[in-house]
Amino acid sequence: MQTSDPLLIEQHIRKDFPSLELQVHGRPLVYLDNAASTFKPLPVLDAERSFYIEKYANVHRGVHHLSQEATRCYEEARAKVAAFLGAPESDNIVFTKGCTEAINLVAQSWGRRLEPGDEVLVTAMEHHANLVPWQMICAQQGAILRIVPIDEKGQTDLEALESMLNPRSKMLAFCSISNVLGSHNPVQTMIRMAKAVGCTVLVDAAQAVAHGPIRVTELDVDFLCFSAHKMYGPTGIGILYGRRELLHSMPPWQGGGDMIREVDYQVTSYAEPPLRFEAGTPPIAQAIGLGAAVDYLQSWGWEIIMDREKALYQHLQVVLDSIPDLRKIGEATDRSSAQSFLLGQAHPYDVGLLLDSMGIAVRTGHHCAQPLMKRWNLPGTVRASVCFYNTFNELDYLGQSLLKTQRMLGHG
Ligand code: PLP
User: Given 214, 221, 250, 353, which residue has the most CB atoms within 10 angstroms?
Assistant: First the structure.
């Protein structure tokens, strides 16, 4: 994009996303549920469509032209993701159904090495996706799941983490950005702390991947995962980045076609990673869509995306701070993109429904973080989450609509 005029940039961005033109309940849609999933830009939709029409076949198994072509596109998408993350090679990237499946893969494959009394640490702000798989494998192996506390603002207690880490700590799994609180975890620091006691680290980058650069080699992280649908890509696809020697040391967790080297009736030898972890026909078109989403993000560049999102998030704070009797949940010094709140005594669900009737999509409920809600004794929250295609006008409209909601609920 040649211009530096913010309004022209905004118009251009919004033209890429036809869904932003939708009307809901007769009003222009204001979509503030980006932490749950983002809309898809035309280049991503076009990439999937043209693959299905022009290059479609199953991958890895055919000698015919289309199968070769499909395989090339699928592997090209893997290479794009590897470059996007600064991974040493494409083989560090395993395609999965999403972030949840990537964490389950690590828990059920890497996790088999856990011994009774070993410890797995997660923070108190984790999404169920980064909690339940660890509960399951700890129960299977007799390992202990330990919860690293967070403070009242919603920040990981690093002193507590330091005191919890010990030679029995085998895995530290945490989100880089909380989907409920928007809090940023100090990823580099936490990785260093874990490494000091020989603890393996998994970073759940689901909420981070669309908002800024991630360099896995510089981070020195062992595993990192995300879902494409939160970064303008399709649903049904995500990735696990794994350090080469770790992936090679891990057994497969699902068996079937594509993950084998040689099969006999009684025994099988397995393919090298990443195919070892990709049993069955993979989500081919979705992987290609993910590759297109990477290209799309890079076509705008992080500077434009991050500048816009920073300004939008600051404006969201100004708008929310101007609403009487609104209580923010999550006030970490370093936070972005998502903000949870409560409106007086109103139930989050009622607020969400009224906002919806005004055309505004926000998320309400526990946000797949029930233990966090229980810790703060909350029924749930309302969560507004922005990304670079949102506008300042939309946020002003959110403010007016929250005041109207308060009046309608008799709280204003
Ligand atoms: N981790 C975090 C922090 C999330 O926000 C989410 C989804 O909201 C997930 C994991 C799970 O992602 P998915 O449902 O796409 O697998």
Answer: 221
Domain holding 204: CATH number? 3.40.640.10
Question: C-alpha angle with apex 410: 405 to 411, nearest 5 degrees?
Answer: 75
346 CA distance to ligand 1 centroid (A)? 27
| 368 labelled catalytic | yes
The set of residues, in sequence order, having a beta carbon less than 8 Å from that of 5 and lying 6+ positions away, is none
363 - beta bridge partners? 383
Lowest mean pLDDT among 164-168, 392-396, 406-410: 406-410
Instruction: Give the tokens for residue 332.
Output: 């970490």
Q: Does 163 have pLDDT greater than 80? A: yes
User: Helix (H, G, I), strand (E, B), or coil: what is residue 409?
Assistant: coil
- Split at pLDDT 50, 70, 90, the class of 411 is low
Residue 36 lies in a domain: no
Give the relative orientation of helices 42-50 and 284-300 as an angle to the nearest 10 degrees.
150
> Checking DSSP bridges between strand 360-361 and strand 30-31, what pairing results, if any?
parallel
Q: Are 171 and 203 in contact (CB under 8 A)?
A: no
Q: Does the C-beta of 282 come closer than 6 Å to ligand 1?
A: no
CA-to-CA distance for 404 and 412, rounded, in angstroms?
8
Q: Is the pLDDT of residue 261 over 80?
A: yes
> Domain of 338?
6-31+301-409
- Alpha-carbon gap, residue 115 to 102, rounded angstroms: 22
Please tell me which residue in 73, 99, 368, 387 is annotated as part of the active site.
368
Candidates 95, 178, 207: which one to mutate for ligand 1, based on the most atoms within 8 Å of Cβ? 207
Residue 1 lies in a domain: no
pLDDT given for residue 3 in this prediction: 79
pLDDT in tens, 80-94: 999 999 999 999 999
